[in-house]
Predict the 3D structure of the following.
Amino acid sequence: MSKIVLITGASGLIGKALMKSLLDQGYFVHTLTTQKPKTHPKPNVKEFYWNPIGNEIDLQSLEGVESIVNLAGAPIAQRWTKAAKNRITNSRVKSLEVLAHNIKTHNFPIKHLISASAIGIYANSITHYYEEKDAQFSSNSYLSSVVHRWEAAVRSFDMENLKVSILRIGIVLDAKKGALPKMMFPIRNYMGAVLGNGDQWQSWIHIEDLVALISHVLKLRIEGVFNAVAPNPVQQSEMTTAIGCVLKKPIVFPNVSESLLKLMLGEMSAIVLESQRVCAKKIQQTGFKFKFHEISAALKSLV
Ligand SMILES: NC(=O)c1ccc[n+]([C@@H]2O[C@H](COP(=O)([O-])OP(=O)(O)OC[C@H]3O[C@@H](n4cnc5c(N)ncnc54)[C@H](OP(=O)(O)O)[C@@H]3O)[C@@H](O)[C@H]2O)c1
């Protein structure tokens, strides 16, 4: 019988692409969704409802499952009001807690959990080149504290015979969803400009590579924490120039100052102003081969 993988957050940018790839590889997929499950999902897919905040989960979603890929979480790119911050944190922490509690209580023989995390765990730094062991560097940023709590919640999966992998994902580049369309919009409309002083590092990954990387960790059941970023992060000024180049649009406006970005986006400006130069070596040492190493090739394939 084919293996069953449970994906949470499967309707999102990463989840959709991963589900397609896993189905193509012959897996059966269960999904846990906070939406009303579709009555006629795709072949080899079963959808189940959950509401992690309310401790609700359809236990049938865990039946026969070997591996879980946890991608659930309320969007980070929303104005960081107090309520939004609670939603962002709680959706991630509670999702893991509800899964762990029910797996333990009902003795589901799950063998592997792969949980999404983010490079926002690393402190804002222009100079540091972050490896996985560097997450203990303290930071006052909200993003870093969320990701620390998110990863701490993974500890509730302290079960015998269950392997745990944490993927610290960088900026996922996809043509239609996520950060890239938002970065392309002003540039496409001749309004492109470098954000802040442009020195901040942006560690990115092509969606195709991220899906392949998750499949690699799943197939080999590799335990541990891994950065999920391409081998060559770029500074914001290079990212903007590279997008302009691929779109064949000049970048004529002066930089958008840090103070204006803070005024426009509030605390959320951290998403575009914080700098994390992150190293991909550890996942490469497991035998994973990236298809997109350089930003220009990644952008050309997407635009
Ligand atoms: N995209 C990136 O650049 C990036 C970078 C680093 C880390 N990550 C992390 O990787 C994960 C997947 O990213 P993504 O880009 O695919 O995100 P996404 O497109 O926003 O999808 C996340 C999914 O989570 C579920 N969700 C939303 N609100 C929820 C809530 N309150 N409680 C439980 N589930 C909720 C939704 O699925 P249902 O509607 O089906 O429930 C949604 O489709 C996220 O946790 C994200 O923070 C993403």
